[in-house]
Request: fold
Amino acid sequence: MRILLSSVGRRGYLVKYFKEALDPGDEVWGADSNKHAPAFQYCDNRALMPKVTEPHYIDQLIRLCQKNRIDMVVPLIDPELEVLAARHQQFDDLGIMAVVSPPQTVQITYDKYLTYQFGKENDIPVPETVTTIPPAKKLLAEGRLSWPLVVKPRNGSASADITYCKNEKQLQYAFENCPNPMIQKYLPGQEYGYDIFSDKNYRPISVFCKLKLAMRAGETDQAVSTDNPRLIKLGLEIAQKIRLFGPMDVDVIMDNGVPKLLEMNPRFGGGYPCSHFAGAKFPAKLISLCKNETLTPDINSCRAGIYMLKQDEIITPCQKSLDAIQNWR
Amino acid sequence: MRILLSSVGRRGYLVKYFKEALDPGDEVWGADSNKHAPAFQYCDNRALMPKVTEPHYIDQLIRLCQKNRIDMVVPLIDPELEVLAARHQQFDDLGIMAVVSPPQTVQITYDKYLTYQFGKENDIPVPETVTTIPPAKKLLAEGRLSWPLVVKPRNGSASADITYCKNEKQLQYAFENCPNPMIQKYLPGQEYGYDIFSDKNYRPISVFCKLKLAMRAGETDQAVSTDNPRLIKLGLEIAQKIRLFGPMDVDVIMDNGVPKLLEMNPRFGGGYPCSHFAGAKFPAKLISLCKNETLTPDINSCRAGIYMLKQDEIITPCQKSLDAIQNWR
Reply:
């Protein structure tokens, strides 16, 4: 079996997890648009790709997969999900398993206001959210919102362009200077992250959950797993209500004991290693699905108290090994 | 010999570098206020400390060193430098080598406007910088500044609270909402980082330099070393003009072929591993100084073309190992 992790970037640990789940002779390939992607150093083979946003990206990805008999493609960054979801059928037709959810799911999760609406429509608690200033003022007047308010881009990532506004002047400015903004209730509670997994029929298989202990560059840097039944129950509800295939990372924040949905990313999240150590084994599950095996759900199997801490691993590739990374066209 | 890396945090690689330079039987200890500091897992011994900002921090650090016969303390974060520099004599008197520069150096480097003034006074090129809006407007009118302008805290870190302002309204707002702000000319050029080293007599020993290829959370994430003579010359000039003991990380940015000084941090910087691979060996140099050996300067020894890429190393300590971290008082 050959697995391609695309936009592999810094995810050396995922390359390792897939290798551990594979049989001898199987291979993990990496693709990225940056030849300095550190995870390249762990891959059995590497392909330097155009940027995901280039018009012919998916055509080139398909050619790469076909020519090298790739069995499974696992996209690892958000911008790739949309284009891959739209062309999903082509991968299916070629017998390549593209680990991506349906376009509608990708759309809901890519836009945090659509995520909010998804929550509203499905009885999943969400923090009050609006997309313009007048309704925010109305909710403030009614006491349903209070300062500070959070202004963030509907499709932001890595915690970029998030502003905590203490008054109307700050709100006005932040709103004007934020790309595609929305205004959300600020919740000061503890933040939890899920790693959820569903099979090809969108059937929930796994719900793992962790308390975030520290964030860095918008990513979970330190976490400890939890088996809190209320959280696992909510995670299962989310999984049941969204058409998901493969892994999804979901963030919730505690509001007076009620976990509220903040955002969803239908791919491996940055905090996945915590769930992996708590027993999630998503790479092995994807390999099983690729072999057309049926998975047994393991909801409620998340072990509590497993710590994950990240630190810098330093890699120093030689020029020759960087030059050897094949420019794919 | 026993070396204590204080505020050791995520610096597992530094623990390794010191261990490699030490003799068998020597020890690297770690101190941090967070028992989840991932680098603890690499240390021979660990001490959970109060926060650096606590009033009795240095007293406790001294007791920790005395009781455990620590020979050298290496502080790794900026807030620790000031308090350690002020009490430097106490460490000297106890025969403990505290790797910290004189208070005046710490003050100049902690405040980016003082860094600018240091550059001005010492013929080191710096980007035009002011601390209030009227002189910025004057320089704009004279054509010595142009949009965008950068507003940043004089003593910020991790790239926090930096705003790029395209017009007067944005400048006004950013200035009002930035803690202890200054206004700086925006330079779009390539950024380089130095790792400089001086001995106890403030004599320059090493000047290593790298091109920054990528930043993350305000830290050098990817870099490649350079032996560019102009850059090495400027690094040596900086080293000659500041009273430095031990390592210092310095950032410059290219402005039409002229490297201009942005900031200095008289401690191991986040991009140090690149210089280490290029031959810097600062841990071995500190160990030599601790043994009262004289160092031979190795200026112009920086090997070019050495890459450093960081990625996440995942650590999963068990609860028992976390509980075993000694709370020091």
Remarks:
- Chain A has twelve helices and 16 strands.
- Chain A has a mean pLDDT of 96.
